[in-house]
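Exam revision sheet. Question 4 asks you to relate a sequence to its structure. Input first:
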Amino acid sequence: MSAKPLTLDYAEANLVRALWLGNLVTFAVLCLGALILAPWQSAVSVAVGGAIALINFRLLERSITRSLMPQMVKKRPVLGKALLKYYIRFLATAALIIILVRQEVVEPLGLLVGLSVVVVTIFIWGALHARKLYKEAV
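Answer key, structure tokens:
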């Protein structure tokens, strides 16, 4: 018996896919804007922060997907392992950010702008869906 790939076959999968594509678009817009409007070190900082945010989003997506799959839930305790992975990833990200800022590899403001890629995408997605719901209600 061959193993099925771990994927969600629900509306959540479409939501995550849309958010991922939105993240990529937001990342590209922020990087391009930084290249045009800011010094090169700020643009690099935005790109580094965005890359960290995108990698964390993808790893979190994978961790949650594996935790929620029915065939995986039966085999092991789910919540504890998912939380452990989350905190390890959080600590690793914090350590990386501290090292990058202390070694002056990146500028803090540019890094912060890049790290906000996922937050900006979710905010835009929420605003667009709220507008859509408002139009349907009126």
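Marking note for examiners. The mean pLDDT is 86.
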